Amino acid sequence: MSAAAEVATKFEELTLDEKLDRLAEVAVKVGLNLKAGQELIMSAPMEALPLARKITEQAYKAGALLVTTLYGDDPSVLARFQYAQDASFDYAPAWLQDGIANGFRSGAARLAIAGANPALLAKQDPAKVARANVAASKAGKPAMELITRHEINWTIVAASTPEWAKLVFPGEAEDVAVAKLWEAIFAASRVNAADPVAEWREHGERLKKRVDLLNARRFSALHFKSADGTTDLKVGLADDHLWAGGGTPAGNGVYCQPNIPTEECFTTPHKDRVDGVVRASKPLSHQGTLIENIAVRFEAGRIVKATATAGEDVLNRLISTDDGARRLGEVALVPHNSPIAQSGILFWNTLFDENAASHIALGQAYSTCLIGGEKMDNAELAKRGANESLIHVDWMIGSAKMDVDGIAADSTAEPLMRKGAWV
Ligand code: ZN
Ligand code: ZN
Predict the structure, then answer these.
(1) For residue 261, which ligand has an atom nearest its CA?
(2) Exposed, middle or buried: residue 298 (CB in 10 Å: 0-12, 13-18, 19+)?
(3) Spatial separation of the C-alpha atoms in residues 265 and 215, rounded to whole Å
(4) How far is the CA of 330 from the centre of ligand 1 (A)?
(5) pTM of the entire structure?
(6) What is the CATH number of domain 3-188?
(7) pLDDT tens across 304-315, in order?
(8) Ligand 1 midpoint to CA 215 (Å)
(9) Span(s) in the chain for CATH 3.40.1830.10
(10) Which of 74, 58, 42 is CA-nearest to residue 161?
């Protein structure tokens, strides 16, 4: 028995501190694959401080030049919505975002810890929320472009925090809910495996195999059809689209896993070739607001009608951000038997929920999902059908009732998923 395996049989017996250290090690060694001498820029909610400290330790052990963490505080965000002057909602610190973009350009990696309260802004004025989001997206564009173009190695991991945990496990005492959410995060992030780093290597290879199969087919479109008829959507794929999943070689030469966890195979739809109706299979938590039962109609790539039973106003403001916000930038296939889907937990967090169901994303496309895309400028990317927008928002459409066909160039259909599982 190897030392790693001996530790693993006792994962449940580890202290929370030791479990956090495992997650931190996976984040730094697998998620970022941080290189010696590399700078790290991290963002984290205040309540994730214990995990942020563990990640900082692991980063320095891996040879980090400097770790700089920007902490977010939910009550301080709320204070802005309660007391700030009106002009505040059209402002974002471009100077800070430009500094972060400069850091990325000079070699820094980026890590985000997810864990903010998904419902923080649910009761705030949707107009102010939308204005603040637009201002933040505009200021953050230079840094975000370096991320969506995969110029740098980056990753996102999650931390269990009280408000989030209480939303996921309603009715539980706060400490019980927080502990349960931590266990769900550890399981989904595969850190309870015998050797988490080796487990991630194997998981990445399994996803790559699926990606290679999809790339070999050269489908021109995907057809999503739900048993109850609420989804009947044809998603045309971009010319020269590439499927990705299970890790990305970044432009700086570092191979990274941008999401911990990840279960998806994803690619770039054609921004003008999406038609039909689609209903979300899970609610969407977007920047502190909850949008439930999204139903949308696409014509020639554009959303022409969008409804929701909660957060409809936020949804319609979101898709009005710019022309690209009404169009798709990503389509992803995730089997309904993925470990996160099987857990049956609704996380109210896209990092987890998008890895439990097939999904689509409104807004910015990933240029790395096009053959040669990393070398193309925006005009050339658009010519291939890749969408451009200030936003990139994933929402879940897959379920155990969903069938997916791959449509070949000659219009013949090949079953890819039946009842949510790979054929
Ligand atoms: Zn995705
Ligand atoms: Zn996405």
Answers:
(1) 1
(2) buried
(3) 10
(4) 7
(5) 0.89
(6) 3.40.1830.10
(7) 999 999 999 999
(8) 17
(9) 3-188
(10) 74
